[in-house]
Structures are given as C-alpha cells and as structure tokens.
Amino acid sequence: MIPTPHINVAEKGIIAETVLLPGDPLRAKFIAENYLDNPVQFNSVRNMYGYTGTYKGKKISVKGTGMGMPSIGIYSYELIHFYGVKNLIRIGSCGSLQKDVKVRDIVVGMAACTNSNYANQYNLPGTFAPVASWELLRKAVDIAGQKGIDVKVGNILSSDTFYDDDPEDWKKWARMGVLAVEMEAAALYMNAARAGVNALCILTVSDSLVSHEATTSEERQNSFTQMMDIALELA
C-alpha cells in the first residue's frame, strides 16, 4: 500500500472502517482530542487532519474533508477504495430552508438534492437520486431517540454555490420541502452508492435563510456536540 495523493497513510488498518467526516479539519482535531481515547494523527497533508482512536472501546477515525463536493468526493473515494472504509458519516453545518427548522437543530439527510453535475461521470440514462444508507439512518434516529435528541429527517440540498447569483433561489427548493442546504452530502452518497458502502449526513443548523439567525465560526468549530454524540454512537 502506498499513500494516496491526499492521505499520507502507507499501512493498512490505520484508518478504521467507520470514519466521521467533518468539513473543517479543526473540527476533526477537536473531536479527536475531546472524544477519542488514545488518538493518533494519520494525516496532515494540506492540513486536512485525520485521526484514529477508540470510542467506548470501538476503533473509529475522524477526517476533515474541506468544502464542496469535489473535495469530499476525493477524500471519500480514497478512503473507500484505498483504505477499506465501509461507513462514512458526514458531520457538518447547514443553513435552514424551513421556518420550523431552527438554528442548532439536528438534520439527518435522508436524501440529497443537488445542483451539481457530479453524477454525470456515471453516464446514467436519467437523473440519479442520492440517498443515505438506511442502516445508518435508522440507527442514527434510534440513537437520537434514546438520548432524547429531536432530529429533523428529510431531504437536503447539496449546493455548488455558497454565494448564489440569485439570492432568492433557495426558496424554490424550500417549496419542494427541502429542509436545509449544505455543500457535500450528494457526492458522498453517490461515491458510497457506487462502491456499495454506507454513508450518512448528520448536520447542525448553523444559520437560517428564513430568520437570518446565525451561529459564530467558533461555535461551529467547537460545539454542535449533540451531532457528534449521535455520529460517534454509530461506530
């Protein structure tokens, strides 16, 4: 085994079969230092930190993926095809598109709409609908219930644009019942579907396009602990 262009690991087994994937590498560092026992850093290429440790006796890794579908597409592909990862759990932030989805709420992405052309590579004779792993989705909802954490489960939007030329464009997705917008899940779900492995996206609402309420960047990096608790229990 040789290191990939983006993950500096040459030995099999250093990365766990279950990997948590925050976009922010500093959130990966925060999780490793505050949740994992005996964490060992396995990657620092491009400062996209990755760590492996144990949580309640189970081996688990956490790895930053950066922003956007091209970035998570690269990292998730390498984790799956070069390092044998079977369960990929994105933990990130999102913007609410619905008035009943409040800042700091937890959203679980049952499916991910997208304005990206990521699926074009598969040459499908139609439109592909990226969906989560039912196994991980059901378990996440069960864990949240056991912990008394309310979660919103439904459709999310993975967008290629953060600063949209049409600032009202999000309302079209909201009319279709889409709960929230983020930038990575659709590519993750497609990579996982193509490889036959499990993927799930768990999000904390960082801001609302409806109410315009927002959290700080520091809060997004170091808090959102309910989302982390659910994801870690999935290992």
From TrEMBL:
It holds the Pfam family PNP_UDP_1. The active site is at residue 207. A purine D-ribonucleoside binds at residues 6, 182-184, 206-207. One of its GO terms (biological process) is purine nucleoside metabolic process. Its EC number is 2.4.2.1. It is an enzyme of class 2 (transferase). Keywords: Glycosyltransferase, Transferase. Residues 19-226 form the Nucleoside phosphorylase domain. GO terms for molecular function: purine-nucleoside phosphorylase activity; uridine phosphorylase activity. Belongs to the PNP/UDP phosphorylase family. Homohexamer; trimer of homodimers. NCBIfam families: deoD (TIGR00107), PRK05819.1 (NF004489), PRK13374.1 (NF009914). This is Purine nucleoside phosphorylase DeoD-type.
